[in-house]
Amino acid sequence: MTGLPRLSDEALAPVRASLSASAAQQAEVVRMEAREQAHRIDVEAQEQAGRSIAAAVAEGRATARTDADLRSARVRREAQGIVLRQQDALRQMLQRQVRDAAVGLRRDPRYPDMLARLTAECHTLLGPDAIVTEHPEGGVVGESGSRRVDLSLPTLATRTLDSMMREVSELWTR
């Protein structure tokens, strides 16, 4: 292999310069395209990160709301349970007091008249052949065959209170 003649160096100089300039220009175009592509990727990544963060925040808020709603519902149920237990305790206390007051009527001087009226009511309801006995806690119980009438003081007190439960319930709804 022999080298090129000396004059060819001078003749090829413009070609070399043109190739070098073309390569530099192409390299600059590739660099510019790479920068633009890197910029687009960066912008797209930042947008995706923003969307991901926004979605995570929204999901976190929704989860927090759900958790808060669940806690709130549980607290409301617990509070309602407490209220219902207190109402039941008050109702039972009222029932005991009414029953005790009714049984206490045996000590009232008017009790014998009351006992006579209750006995007469048993005979009215069951007939003149009914067997009427005094209840140990006051009042009477009448029987005639398979029929029975309980006009004892505790039973009458319970029936009276039961008939007034709507009014009694209003005590805790005010």
Tags for this model:
4 helices; 174 residues; single chain; 3-stranded antiparallel beta sheet; mainly alpha
Task: Describe the structure in your own words.
- The structure is a single chain.
- The protein is 75% helix and 9% strand.
- The chain has 174 residues and is mainly alpha-helical.
- The radius of gyration is 51 Å and the shape is rod-shaped.
- Helix 1 (6-104) crosses helix 3 (153-163).
- It has helices spanning 6-104, 111-126, 153-163, 165-169, and strands spanning 131-134, 139-144, 147-152.
- The protein has a three-stranded antiparallel sheet.
- The longest helix has 99 residues, at 6-104.
Summarize the structure.
The protein is mainly α.
